Amino acid sequence: MKLASRYNRVNLVVSLIVLLLTGVIYYIVIHFILTEKLDRDLRIEEDEIRAYVSKYRKLPLPGDFQDQKVSYRPLKKADSLVRTFSNCVYLNEKENEAEPGRSLLTYIVVNKQLFEVTVVKSRLEAEGLVKLIFLITLGITTFLLLLLFLLNRFLLNSLWRPFYSMLDQMKAFNLADKNEINAEFSKVDEFTELNQAVLAMSQRVKQDYKELKSFTDNASHEMMTPLAVINSKLDTLLQTAGFSDQQGELIEDIYLAIGRLSRLSHSLLLLAKIENNLIKNEELIDLKELLNQKARQFQELLQSNEISISLNLEAKTVSMSKYLADILLNNLMSNAIRHNLKSGHIDILLSADQLIFSNTGIAVALDDTRTFERFNKTASSEGMGLGLAISRQICNLYRFKLSYQYENGRHSFIISF
């Protein structure tokens, strides 16, 4: 979940809880204020009755008005006397229906006769006012939550746009690309600092990578001449007679080691040329024809390893260097043979969208996070661990995608065009 969405959700939940609690407290306070107002009106009515009795020595006539009712009841001296306020339901005779009311039960002495005085005022208007306030509060709360949601959704997306722009560029960042990271202007200090840090980091990493690549290129190039001289001298030495068996074995070991070093130097130089896009001569390559050609070229090696091969090829042409296309297919074919089982099988499928090399092999999936790294190889491999790295670099050069899958005991290398 994105940070903006999570913040929006938490903000809405907290706001909803706060607004609901505030609404409940507001309702209780309003209800209390209105009840106090009714009690004050009841006390005023009580004072008026007492004033009337004091002046005229008799009770005023019982009243039954639209929102007020006054009644009297004579009491005995033994009756308990407690002055109380309470909620009640009384009959509104004009409307002929029961209504909620607030009553005051009090007592008064008239001409030495004790009377119970009940004054009831209607709470219908107050209850209506409370309901109206509640509905208004609910409406305002809903409106505020909706407004908060919309503001967070659009405002936060706008605020976080520089961050996501930088994140997308970091995901697409490639050391071999010449494209630079472009920071989007932001008025937020944290994003500005982030942009500056990412730009500085990318420039430092590119500079380090450039120096490392330059060192590798120069070292590989400088090794080619001495290696060629050593190879030539060894060839001349091997043509001379008079070596003992032990001397012959030593010279053969040196010859094999020099050959391996030559191949390593050649591979590193090839990688450098691909990364620097120094191999041009793009042309339309008929992959179906080229794959058939590779199957014929590797036929002897396949037979010697008792490996069968199946081709399912559709017509497909790509624009790329013929030299690099040869290297790419040679690497994938060699890899499928070298890491296959005795009497194993290779399937090559070519469609308009994909080229798949699928082979039997060890029943363990490769580490797909390191499969295409340089010098990454299994313990049993006799190669240098550069073939798949070169293959991926070639695919990257032409914007193909090379991926690895392991399924049902088969290792598959897939080129998506």
Query: Main beta sheet, described?
Result: 5 strands, mixed
Portion in strands:
15-25%
How many angstroms separate the termini? 32 Å
Low-confidence stretches: none
Rg: 47 Å
Q: What is the helix/strand order?
A: HEEEEHHHEHHEEHEEHEE
Helicity level, as a percent range? Answer: 40-55%
Please tally the β strands and state the result: 11
Strand order of the largest sheet: 6-8-9-11-10
Assembly type of the chains comes to single chain
Which secondary-structure class do the elements indicate? Answer: alpha+beta
Task: Give the overall form.
Answer: rod-shaped
Mean pLDDT: 84
Count the DSSP helices. 8
Annotate the secondary structure layout.
Elements: H1 3-56, E1 68-74, E2 84-92, E3 97-110, E4 113-122, H2 124-171, H3 189-239, H4 245-275, E5 282-286, H5 287-297, H6 299-304, E6 308-313, E7 317-321, H7 322-338, E8 345-350, E9 354-360, H8 387-397, E10 401-407, E11 410-416
Parallel strand pairs: 6-8
Antiparallel strand pairs: 1-4, 2-3, 3-4, 5-7, 8-9, 9-11, 10-11
Helix pairs in contact: 1-2, 2-3, 3-4, 4-8, 5-7, 7-8
Description:
It is a single chain. With 417 residues, the chain is an alpha+beta fold. Helix content is 55%, strand content 20%. The protein contains 8 helices and 11 strands. It has helices at 3-56, 124-171, 189-239, 245-275, 287-297, 299-304, 322-338, 387-397, and strands spanning 68-74, 84-92, 97-110, 113-122, 282-286, 308-313, 317-321, 345-350, 354-360, 401-407, 410-416. The longest helix is centred in the N-terminal third of the chain and has 54 residues, at 3-56. The radius of gyration is 47 Å and the shape is rod-shaped. The model has no long low-confidence stretch (mean pLDDT 84).
